Structure formats: C-alpha cells, structure tokens
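Crash report, auto-generated. Payload:
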Amino acid sequence: MLNILASVFCYDIWFYISHILLHTPFLYKFHHEHHMKKFPTFLDTYVGHSLEGPFQGMGALVPFCVYTYSVLDICIVLAILNIRGMMRHDARFVFIIGDHHLLHHCYPKYNFGEPWIDRLCGTMRPLGLEPLALKPLLLNPNK
Ligand SMILES: [Zn+2]
Ligand SMILES: [Zn+2]
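Recovered output after restart:
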C-alpha cells in the first residue's frame, strides 16, 4: 500500500516539475499539442507529443528503487494515474475532482500540477478570474 502511495506522490511531484519545464520556450514544442483544446474532454488526456507522456510519467518509477511492486500494485498505480488524468480533463467530473487542471487549459500560466503543489509553489490560479473551464458545461448542460 505504501509503495502505491509513494508512486502517486512521486508522480505528482515530477509531473509538476516536468510540466513547468514543458512550458518553457525550449520545451513547449513538445507540449503545445496538448494545449490545442481550451475545453478538453477525457478523450484529449493523451493528446500530445509521443515523448510527453513517458517524460511526465517517470516520477512514478522513482519509488521502485526503494519498494517492491507486484504486478497488481503496478496495475493499481496505472489505474489511479490514468483514471484521475482522464477525469481531470473532463468538465463532467468537476464535482468529483475539481476544475484545477481544466483551468490550466484556459490559463496556461497557472495550475501545473495538483492543487497542493501549486499552492505551495505559488503557481495556483488567483481567485477572481472568470471560471472559463466550466463554460462548456454551463453553455450546454446536457453535454
Ligand atoms: Zn491537460
Ligand atoms: Zn500545460
């Protein structure tokens, strides 16, 4: 159990760092495709350069140096990361997971990772900006 939590924790930290790096002028060419849609759905989760996913996912492997993992443990880690990733790209799941990453697609200078990391590092979207991420849901509530 601790190994699974460690993988998710390390994934989140590296995802934040790698995401900041991908927004630098030098590396943005590998990330701009992911930002083509301002209002993504879960289908857009994996849209991007083929190296982007492996690059951002490497953090989950760091605890493999410390802990042992069964095949089931690895499947659980992959399920958590992929399901959470898809949910945070779709406004229909905002009531479960919030709009933190959806807001990143509207305001790419904020919200690079999990809310606690953005809050800690000062990259949280300031309050008062229009909640554009929810706009498609509000415009088309049947979607
Ligand atoms: Zn995204
Ligand atoms: Zn981004």
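Post-recovery validation: The longest helix spans residues 2-22.
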